[in-house]
């Protein structure tokens, strides 16, 4: 714990990690209960044949988006909030810090409440224990995030293989109970959903996380490792979560792997899966909040920001506000992907694939072209009836490319900040 994971600077080559470490941390992030619930909605609406290719296509698009940002993160050593200084400006980047940070603290509150409620329900403990458990888990899950990348690496190296084994046991048991693919093919959908809407659900499950996965892909030793690890997490890992939720709903009318394992008689495994599934996402989530908070406040005290974020999330959980936050958090998920589009366009078109050193870069307070492109992308995503996350990315990137060619006084960058950070 001799450093704080470089919250305001590039990750040096001496701190870079290999494929196993990077993949473990990212897979731990994408093994998320809410993703299985999203998969459950698909399991009610499609036959097994349609379901498989929709999951394949949706997660391929999600993985490609996240992997593109991972490549930039590894090349530059920067995460998304630090890249935001280049495409939004020193002060303009605080907009992205707030949106990204608020989203993550909301999901942290949701996860903290979820594990307490589910654990009480699963084990038969008295209901009055829910609040003490929320406090315990709210602060307990942030410990590995406080340690930093190394702490999350240690946890993920144990948790990811264990969760993978539990999921495979459950899927095999489910296929036996359903009489294999022949039995699954006989099940008819009970709900209706268009293919475009289904792909939107899949992409929307974790595109916000994909935008912030640069917090770990920037630690990769090479761009190749960053891309492979990110695809493993967002194509394979997230795809497995969606498939697990869909099959659980088709066979047992339960999307959550914990409920499915209990229905299959694996109570002990279900409790272990609950802990590992929530913990490996919670520590990543609060780490994301801390990184965004450090950039917002321009402080190196990442561990202090981590504990502060855990406290806020715990208060939201105990106060019951986590249920009220979910629709708002999903809405914010629409506004996050366009940031990735602006970052991509800024990196390749304006900076020609190489950022200058952040410490010596002369950055404006507000990059008006970047902010305008983001606003256009966010607006397009909000009003688009078809694949809003992808529309937001494409419109934001395309708008930035066009605005770079427009020489107009109102689009010029504001004066550079006089204070160096």
TrEMBL record:
PANTHER family in UniProt: CYTOSINE PERMEASE, CYTOSINE TRANSPORTER CODB
Residues that span the membrane, as ranges: 20-39, 51-74, 95-119, 131-149, 158-175, 195-213, 225-251, 257-279, 304-322, 328-349, 370-403
Family indicated by similarity: Belongs to the purine-cytosine permease (2.A.39) family.
Species lineage: Bacteria, Pseudomonadati, Pseudomonadota, Gammaproteobacteria, Oceanospirillales
NCBIfam families: PRK11017.1
InterPro entries per the UniProt record, alphabetical: CodB, Pur-cyt_permease
Name of the protein in its database record: Cytosine permease
Origin species: Vreelandella gomseomensis
Subcellular location field: Membrane
Keyword set, alphabetical order: Membrane, Transmembrane, Transmembrane helix
Membrane-protein topology: Multi-pass membrane protein
